[in-house]
Write the structure tokens for this entry.
Amino acid sequence: MFTIDAHLDLSMNAMEWNRDLRNTVFEIREREIGLSDKPDRAKGTVAFPELRKGNVGLVVATQIARYVAPNNPLPGWASPEQAWAQTQGQVAWYQAMEACGEMVQINDLASLEKHLALWSDTTIPNEQKAIGYILSLEGADSIVTVDHVAKAHEYGLRAIGPAHYGPGRYAQGTDATGGLGPHGRDLLKEMERLNIILDATHLCDDSFWEALDHFHGNIWASHNLCRSLVNHNRQFSDEQIKELINRGAVIGGALDAWMMVPNWVRGVSTPENMNCNLEVMLDHLDHICQIAGNANHIGIGSDLDGAFGKEQSPYDLETIADLQKIPDMLRKRGYSKEDIEKVMHGNWLRFLRNAWK
Ligand SMILES: [Zn+2]
């Protein structure tokens, strides 16, 4: 079934993990044997051949670069200008992948419909189809001034999550507290003017509520799970989920094990001993459906290879192609054919068609 994944850090993998995503997952792993600079070496799950194998024809793909003040222990750049330059390298990679026919940027209704027509043509093998990507920015620190938003919109940026981990220049993120401040509100105003989607993922509670109060455009949450199942500020409370549903949002289910099962200890827990499989993510999506009273607000935003690999992913997922196991799992849970299609792609498409009409 045609599948949309609303959160993949593809350019980060290419530029910081040095992965040529045109190779298979297994070729990339092979090349990383013996490397120990990152905990997920030789454990990646995402590459173009596996996206095609899994019918994942459209993704939301990120730019990502954090600014850190001198007292901030998180990894990041020493100035917003450096972070901006990093994201420009990432854009250059996406453009290089377009130039060789591997990817195609989807940035308006016409390009979306054209792309969907291509992927629904079963006479063309997936190997010959470019993977569509919608460009998103995870954490807005690299936006040097609010004027840079228009520059970014020009090269195709269509969604922004103002925060990532820790304190940010425009909003406070996961594990931080506090509101947006005047710069954050200006950022939201400019996003609204340019019809850029607000990604509510990673906003801390204070910034989340302030952002929703001040932003009147389209809101989604690209990769998020539920606080009532795994209690952490990175997850949404039922109250936040309710508000997102009221605002017409779609929430993408993530496949990062520590968000899926309680009491995960990084580097110690394993997917097997924590019983973390794809069904667990569906438990979270089910919970959102219970709150909504329908299946109209959930999708997939896997975050696979988002600085973790197989060691922190569901044990029944070898590569991203295994997202194709989900339709059957939903069927067994009693989801209708129509609802399964909504989860795999339909809800994101409804959202985009409405946002870009
Ligand atoms: Zn994230």
About this structure: The radius of gyration is 19 Å. The first strand starts at residue 3 and ends at 8.
